[in-house]
Design goal:
Blueprint (H helix, E strand, L loop, with lengths): L9 H52 L15 H4 L16 E6 L2 E6 L9
Antiparallel strand pairs: 1-2
Length: 119
């Protein structure tokens, strides 16, 4: 009777490594896309929080925060912290949030992701 040693052959190990390589080749691009999408959605959630805070400010004060020279405002913390927010949210990808006031329309935008998408 022939005796066979226990263990895996080199071919079996190479097949398993090849399968893992294919799985990683599929998973890594998917993860990168998913990560970017999650950060974008988190930014939109932060913009929604800022817009809701802006609406509360308008209800309490009867107007939106003023703009000195009509240009967009990036330092809006004195208007909202600590009365409406504990701290200002920040963009997960490092963008800057900007406050805009156009007539009676006030909104926030992100330097990376833009405005909130319309529903």
């Amino acid at each position: 009777m022939l005796f066979r040693e226990k263990g895996f052959t080199l071919i079996e190990i190479m097949v398993v490594v090849l399968i893992f390589g294919f799985l990683l080749a599929i998973a890594i691009p998917f993860y990168a896309t998913l990560s970017s999408s999650v950060k974008k959605n988190a930014c939109y959630a932060n913009l929604q929080v800022l817009d809701n805070t802006l609406a509360r400010y308008n209800i309490d004060k009867g107007s939106y925060p003023p703009l000195a020279d009509g240009s967009p405002l990036t330092d809006f913390e004195p208007y909202f912290v600590p009365e409406y927010l504990k701290r200002l949210p920040s963009c997960p990808q490092g963008g800057d949030y900007t406050y805009h006031l156009l007539g009676t329309n006030a909104y926030f935008s992100c330097s990376i992701h833009g405005n909130l998408p319309k529903k």
